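Ops channel
N.P.: pipeline sanity check, posting one input/output pair.
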């Protein structure tokens, strides 16, 4: 009996004292993930090449850091229950791959699932959380995306807490990416457990669509954007809303890719590319490496932007930046180009949540066009612009 009490006491202490690793993901994580382009068709060559091209394309210089292997890397558990990599697809083993990615100055991410099996039917971590966390730490993993398939009977908050505690116990600082599709309001409990949480079901490469798969849907860019409504209060340094990995370079038009990327920047969303880095068009590289757009995303205040108003098909979004500066985006959701007049001094832009006001009577800002890379005027003059269909015009308002 005494022994049992002692055991429970220890368990209580372990659970109560475990904390997520702080000081990680102080700005939204940036990287690449294999799923959107390659799904289960991955191997060590694909991952090595992603790392190679992340460096040679300039993405690393622009701030991208994590190379994340998604589902389907797994082989079987060994006789002691430790997970191994699929021997055919990853003949050199996972440790060698992690070392390779690290040798490029990048960080390594891996994928598992809180349930018995991953969504792709590979072994999940249920009941093996501490053992798997130890394995990841031993391999040198820096980031874990933790999914939610085959989790009958589990409570999300508890299951993610178990993995948080397991990672803590393993001792290596690892970013924990919660992926339960927003089903259990992770924004309400995720801050103490992980560093980012998916807010929606899966994205796919379409701008304005929903694909119904029966019991679940995948969503286009605009559908996902609309689902972020009401969530900005939960995001901040170390804990981000994650509207899913990007589809830039995966088949939408250049205008749509630009709009998609810009909105993820305005949302302070994790910027996880999901395209084939070894085969990118110049336009795709230009979008993914736009340093001015990335600076909006990575602004140290870590404030998620908000929809200020809608003018017919155009949404006007603002994002507060450090030093009382702002980013503003005019997003044209419609099928036709739109002409807009915007008189700054008649507008009343207030971020109530953070008590910030863009007072255009007091401060005259310079407009720096983030996609044309030039100064285009000041806020004391009315703005007159044309926004192509499914595209954006974005400015930094600089003092
Ligand atoms: C879920 C996730 C996706 C991806 C797949 C892998 O659908 O939401 O992002 O990880 O599983 O099977």
């Amino acid at each position: 009996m005494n022994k049992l009490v002692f055991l429970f006491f220890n368990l209580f202490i372990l659970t109560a004292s475990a904390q997520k690793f702080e000081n990680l993901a102080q700005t939204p994580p940036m990287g690449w993930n294999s799923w959107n382009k390659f799904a289960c068709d991955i191997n060590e060559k694909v991952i090595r090449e992603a790392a190679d091209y992340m460096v040679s394309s300039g993405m690393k210089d622009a701030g991208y850091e994590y190379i994340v292997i998604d589902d389907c890397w797994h082989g079987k558990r060994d006789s002691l229950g430790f997970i191994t990599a699929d021997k055919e697809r990853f003949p050199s083993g996972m440790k060698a791959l992690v070392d390779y990615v690290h040798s490029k100055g990048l960080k390594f991410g891996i994928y598992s699932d809180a349930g018995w099996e991953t969504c792709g039917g590979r072994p999940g971590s249920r009941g093996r959380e501490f053992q798997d966390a130890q394995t990841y730490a031993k391999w040198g993993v820096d980031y874990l995306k933790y999914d939610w398939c085959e989790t009958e009977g589990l409570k999300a908050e508890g299951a993610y807490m178990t993995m948080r505690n397991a990672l803590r116990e393993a001792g290596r600082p690892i970013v924990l990416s919660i992926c339960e599709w927003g089903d259990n309001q992770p924004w309400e409990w995720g801050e103490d457990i992980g560093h980012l949480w998916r807010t929606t079901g899966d994205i796919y490469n379409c701008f304005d669509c929903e694909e119904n798969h029966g019991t679940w849907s995948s969503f286009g860019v605009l559908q996902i954007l609309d689902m972020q409504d009401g969530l900005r209060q939960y995001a901040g340094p170390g804990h981000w809303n994650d509207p899913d990995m990007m589809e830039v370079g995966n088949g939408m038009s250049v205008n749509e890719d630009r709009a998609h990327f810009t909105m993820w920047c305005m949302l302070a969303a994790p910027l996880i590319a999901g395209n084939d880095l070894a085969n990118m068009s110049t336009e795709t590289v230009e979008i993914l490496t736009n340093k001015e757009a990335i600076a909006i995303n990575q602004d140290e205040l870590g404030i998620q932007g908000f929809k200020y108003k809608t003018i017919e098909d155009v949404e006007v979004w603002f994002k507060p930046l450090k030093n009382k500066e702002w980013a503003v985006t005019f997003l044209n959701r419609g099928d036709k180009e739109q002409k807009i007049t915007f008189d700054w001094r008649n507008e009343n832009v207030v971020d109530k949540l953070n008590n910030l006001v863009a007072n255009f009577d007091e401060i005259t800002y310079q407009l720096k066009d983030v996609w044309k890379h030039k100064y285009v005027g000041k806020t004391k003059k009315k703005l007159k612009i044309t926004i192509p269909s499914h595209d954006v015009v974005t400015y930094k308002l600089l003092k």
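N.P.: looks fine end to end. The chain has two domains: 14-297, 306-398.
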